[in-house]
Design goal:
Blueprint: E1 14-18, H1 24-36, E2 40-42, H2 53-63, E3 66-71, H3 79-91, E4 96-100, E5 116-117, H4 123-135, E6 162-163, H5 176-186, E7 193-198, H6 205-215, E8 222-227, H7 234-244, H8 254-266, E9 269-276, E10 292-299, E11 309-312, H9 318-329, H10 333-342, H11 347-360, H12 364-373, H13 375-378, H14 391-405, H15 407-418, H16 446-458, E12 463-465, E13 468-470, H17 473-481, H18 485-502, H19 513-525, H20 534-549, H21 553-570, H22 576-591, H23 595-612, H24 618-633, H25 637-654, H26 660-675, H27 679-697, H28 702-717, H29 721-739, H30 744-759, H31 763-780, H32 786-801, H33 805-822, H34 828-843, H35 847-856
Parallel strand pairs: 1-2, 1-3, 3-4, 4-5, 6-8, 7-10, 7-11, 8-9, 9-10
Antiparallel strand pairs: 12-13
Amino acid sequence: MLAIASTCHSGRVRVFVSYATEDRQRAEWVAQQLRQAGYEVEIDIDWRYGDNFMDRMREALEACDAMVALFSPAYFAKKYTLMELNAWLAGRETGLVPLRIASGDVPTFYRPYIYTDLVGLPEEMARQVLVSAVAGQPGPVTVRPRRPADIGLGAARSLPRTWSVPARNLGFVGRDRLLTDLRERLTAGSRAVVQALHGWGGVGKTQLAIEYAHRFAREYDFVGWLDSQRPELIDDQAATIAVTAGIVSADTPTREAALRLKERLRAQSGWLLIFDNAEKPDDIRDWLPGGEGHVIITSRHRAWHGLAAAVEVDVFTRGESIEFLREQAGLDEADADSLAQALGDLPLAIAQAAGYLVSTGVTPLRYQTMLAEHAARVLQHGTPTGYPAPLAASITLSLQRLADTNPAALAMVRVCARLAPEPLPVDWFLNPDIEERPAPLRAIDASDLYAAAGTLGSLGLARPTPDGLVLHRLTQAVITDSLTDAERAETAAAATALVVATRPTETANPRCWPTWQTLLPHILALDPTASADARLRRTAVNAVRYQARRGDYRSAHTLAEQLSTAWATSLGPEHPDTLAAANRVGEMLRSLGDYAAAAEVHRRTLESRRRVLGEEHPDTLKSANNLAMALRGLGDLAAARDLHEQTLATRRRVLGDDHPDTRNSASNLAFTLRLLGEHTAARDIHEQVLATRRRLLGDDHPATLISANNLAVTLRELGDYAAAREIHEQVLATRRRLLGDDHPATLISAHSLAETLRDLGDYAAAREIHEQTLTARRRILGDDHPSTLISAHNLAETLHALGEHTAARDLLRQTLATRRRVLGDRHLVTLATARRLIQILRFLGDNAAADELEAEFPRAPEQTSPDHR
């Protein structure tokens, strides 16, 4: 070692301690010994939350005279520790003090750097070697046999004098952040600190407490473990610990011995008590000593307010699951990832699966198949180290308790098990008619429901959250698998009734969207493609409409296709529900810009509905309206106008002028009239529809905003730019507030405003909005979507107005090529782009290119407005 000569401003050598999270206890010990020896120590334990890690590391490396690197397997597995080590080696020739603190090979790249070995040394000798190494003095030569289970520094005092903690799980992985946070919480104050680890059954709360006790054992003089599931036995356990600690004699009465232990702990510090598997706060409330020690509670119960700080223990991260399965079952990363996904990263299930794979030789894929077929049976096998029972047995025991004590909670958890592993609002259980609820839920109110939800949380079967009850997918699978055929049918019916009763009446109103968003995964969990319940099928069709209203056209198209295909087989191609799903498929194809495919779907659906439902059925008229819109998208404006006029006349006669479908037909007809150049007629209809929608729906309803935007576009084309701008700005602001900046409807408003600004001569502002809109549309809708191409065309127009003629030409060339490929050469907007490109080419003097293009597109379209979307 080279002696360290330079010092900080205080005159003391400043040392940076580099370590892996798993070695934090040892790092704290190193820092403490160096400070006692007179060194100034920089360690990230002292850094504040919110600090920039990279900045703090760089500052520390620059300011310190030496870096102590605590070599261990974990050290060489972490990116940040190697970043620190490599940064030091890159910038310094001296001052590195490598210390090996745990058994394991040093990677080849770092073997040239001679390290000092602290593995297996007694604490005092380890301290001397540490200080000598940093001081640059030769350390004592020690040759000791390595122990199989090296626990590092302080081996001579590896455990406190009083210790009753279960054996450490050598297969424990991950949880570093949680353990670090727990340590920081426990050491945050001088008075007794109580932390309650709570969470689902099987998330490893007990294992976490055991690992904490072992990892930080040398920080305590006394560590007591109390199994608290049966509170009447706590006194006996406490008395045994008191005798072991020498606080009382063996013949002291149990109660007296327990009280003496509590008194002793209250009067001193340096102790840790762990109450494992406490069912509720009152079971251990009288047992908390106070004083200056630490208390950890593990429990499935969530409510520890006033007694302890609640710390939720969740499932493994995916990385932790993969690490465990690779280490314990020898899986490659892909198989480990797939199996972890199937197991929902639940630690107990991960451990069971690893054990089962190793003991039986079954493949991960076969295990997943078995799990899907019979979860309860598969999860009944094997009790992993550190867990009291297999997952299925634990869940079954809790269900039996509910059957005996709380039938309402049992009914709730069964319904939850049939739905998605997503929040299910407790109040929703009251939505179905009484006769459609499970029998135990027919005579209860909201307070009873929430009490039952609390019971489910206390048993670890569900997680009560502000958004509703959440079940882990494996808990769901075990519960469902345990039902009889009759119970399964009854539960499915109750779950379906809940979903159908909760369905909002509107899909277009943003106020209904939060309910739809929460409801959608539960609709899908019931598999409407195979449902015999017509109400659920209609709910699924409406869910497609909701997804579209949110602007998620691709997901909506996928769901509509699944419904249409499945129902065509099971119900028949002309069943009303099949046709309803097919109608949604056509709508989504149109929204995605595939007008030809949309027109074909709508034409077939219209023919079937006319045959099955009749010419004037509301659903038939919806198909006619949708076909007209698809024809308009294809550029066949005359045919679109004729069909819109026919549909509007029939709707007025059958449904009345104020019916929403009639207003839609009127609006669509006006839209088409504007594209045909009949602006005055279009304006008059738009004004009438807007007034009606404002009166019936309100100013902020999406349909009202559509009418307002359409009227503004028409006013602009009539030359009333100021009025158009005012309306566009109002609609854009409202849509941004209600829908967000990236919703397709918001982008329509932004595009329309940009066009109006260009007409007003504010080219710079128009350009800025067009560029933002084009970027968003490319990202959200794709490069080939008609709306994206409209934005590109009109941005090119704006660039030309700004004098950027070459950029305008290049963008129009790209747009024309895409429009020819997507829409064809004869589509109106393709012709409009070709004609504009010809004009700009001539403006630039490139007559040869203009003549060549004009030969392909000899006539300019007389009736088109490429900015309609």
